[in-house]
Amino acid sequence: MNKLKTGIFILFEGGECCGKSTIQKRCFDYFSTKYDTVKMREPGSANVSEGIRKLLLDPEMKMSDITELMLYESARAQFVEESLKPALEQCKLVLCDRSYYSTVAYQGFGRGIDLKTIESLNNIATQGIKPDISFIFDVPYEEAIRRMKNAWKSPDRIERLGKEFHEKVREGYLYIAKNYPEAILINAFRDIETIIKEVMGKTEEYILSKS
Question: In terms of pTM, does the model score above 0.90?
């Protein structure tokens, strides 16, 4: 197994049913045979964070937009301290399903909370740690709904929000792709194998550039 010289943080982001979790798993299956690789998710990947995740996604849970924001940031702070930061210090390849860009898209654009406030809270929660690459998987809302219906599962609290909300979230992700230098916009309305090949290729290229 190859040894990385530094920890590398690869982020998988996007709206509902964009395919990011499937692509993350396939990338993990591939890269874990070559490097010391870990698969994480937000909110989650730490005991406290997983508990907060259950609250946030519970369809029966009612909360204000600010409460929702603060819970996401609390889960993130614990995740960074307990899981992400140690993995990067141990020179691991971290493949993470969602992080602070989700807060920009969902709570910033979707809920309409001030972006400067979110940026400030994100910086505190992440201790300034930024992803090396952020893949932004983009699909139209209509395709996301079609995929959601085909998934045969009960939608969570966030998935149940309507078209107007999720189109604002998509607008947020397109904003991120244009304004953050490490963000790479991926057309996720294509054959999954084509997308996986593209993501693996860009990730491998970055890893080799750090060797």
Answer: yes
